[in-house]
Every structure is written in structure tokens, then in C-alpha cells.
Amino acid sequence: MGIWPLKNYLPLFLFFFIYLFIHCSLTLAHLLLAEKTVDNVLMNLAENIELTMTLTKVTITRVRRETLGKLFTEIKEYALTEKYETKQEKLTFLNYTKLPLYFIVIIAFSMGLAEVLYYVSRVVDGFQIARYNVTMGYELPYRTLEYIDITDGWIYALFCAYQIIFIPCVVLGYVGFDCMFVNLSIQVIAQYAILSYKVETVLNSCENFHKGMKELVLRHYRLIRLTEELENTFNFSIMQQLMGTTMHICISGYYLVTV
């Protein structure tokens, strides 16, 4: 989506950003202008929250591209230049390094599958509505402001093709941002775990005790600084993630109780 911190893909970013912005605006317009029923409002909110969070994450990543790039580079250099002397340190580094891959595969697959199933089910519902009630026309997979009456099958297919782009936007923008945060966080956590083993090694060694402790203190200070940079970079996105997820849980709970 053109938001990778270490590469500059401005045209690709502009394409997805403009698409998400237009789609978000049409969804918000539908929320304001459509009939105010509980089902309409909640369904629109559920879609709009995910859409807004995706747009926010994409924008944050692009705006803070330089900061994230420096953070990526520093954590990478720190992890690669670190000397892993004992077997425990090496195993700890390898085990922690595997975790982001598992997270990325699971979360990307589950979110992609959920979005595809939702999209397909909504397309099927749209065809069924138009089939049994021709005057109502087709219903789009995602609720947006319909500025024309969609009664023709080809026009409906074009709108479906337009809205299907939202699926890779969610997988790459929404999930990709979370995967980036988890990856950076786990790398820092791994260094903290390795540092604890180094402290144990220095405490059990009588040679160069003061020099070893001094190096560990400096290493610990550097890790604290990386943690603060990580927190300052992602604090707003974590807040909106918490708020959006809470609202999604509330909406899901409502449907679970009422259905």
C-alpha cells in the first residue's frame, strides 16, 4: 500500500489513501442520510469503524514513515550486532524471532478469510434481494451512499469490483500495521529476555565484573529508549485500536443477544 517505512511508494499510497477516503466518506454519508433503524445504524457503524481504523493506521504509518524507518533500522542493527554468547541467549533469540511469523500468518489468514466471507455473503444477499424484488434494486456488499439506482446487473458488478479493493486494504493496511507493531515489540522483548541471561552470566563471573555490569547498564538504557520510542510512535494507534475493538465487541454482543 505504499506505507512501508523503508521504501517510498507515493503513487501506490495515494491510490489506496484516496480510495479509502472516498469509501469512508460515502459510508459516513450513508450513515447520516439513510433510514435510522437499529440494523442500519449498527451495521454501518461496524463497517465504518473498521474502515476508519484502516484509514487512520495507513495515514499514521505514512506520516511517521521516517520515525518508523529509523526505529526499524535501529532495532534491526541492535538485534544483528548483538553477541549471543550462551546457548540460552541464542535459543531465546531464535524462539522470539519465530513468533512474529506465526502471528502474521494467523492474523492475516483469519482477517482475510473473514472479509472474503462477509463480502461474498453480502454479494449473494444483494443478488437475492434484486431477484425477489426488482424495484428495490441491488444492495452493495458494503453500505455506502448510493448516488444512482443500481438496478442493472452490470452496474452492480462494477460496484462490487470497486468495493472488493477494500479487502486487500484491510489485510494490508489494518492487519499489516498490527503485524509491524507486534514484530517490533517482540524484537525488543527478545532483547530484554537476552539481557536477563547476560546479567546472570555477569553475576556468576568474577572476571571484569564492573566492566560487564557497565555494559549491561548501557544496554539496558538503550532498550528503555527503544521502548519509549516504540510507545511514542504507536500510542495513538493503540488507543484507537482499543476504542474500535471495544465498539465492535459491543455491536457483536448486541447481535448475539438479540438474534
Automatic annotation (TrEMBL):
<keyword id="KW-1003">Cell membrane</keyword>
<dbReference type="GO" id="GO:0005886">
    <property type="term" value="C:plasma membrane"/>
</dbReference>
<dbReference type="GO" id="GO:0007608">
    <property type="term" value="P:sensory perception of smell"/>
</dbReference>
<feature type="transmembrane region" description="Helical">
    <location>
        <begin position="99"/>
        <end position="120"/>
    </location>
</feature>
<keyword id="KW-0812">Transmembrane</keyword>
<feature type="transmembrane region" description="Helical">
    <location>
        <begin position="154"/>
        <end position="177"/>
    </location>
</feature>
<keyword id="KW-0807">Transducer</keyword>
<feature type="transmembrane region" description="Helical">
    <location>
        <begin position="12"/>
        <end position="33"/>
    </location>
</feature>
<dbReference type="Pfam" id="PF02949">
    <property type="entry name" value="7tm_6"/>
</dbReference>
<dbReference type="InterPro" id="IPR004117">
    <property type="entry name" value="7tm6_olfct_rcpt"/>
</dbReference>
<dbReference type="GO" id="GO:0007165">
    <property type="term" value="P:signal transduction"/>
</dbReference>
<protein>
    <submittedName>
        <fullName>Odorant receptor 4-like</fullName>
    </submittedName>
</protein>
<keyword id="KW-0716">Sensory transduction</keyword>
<keyword id="KW-0675">Receptor</keyword>
<keyword id="KW-1133">Transmembrane helix</keyword>
<keyword id="KW-0552">Olfaction</keyword>
<keyword id="KW-0472">Membrane</keyword>
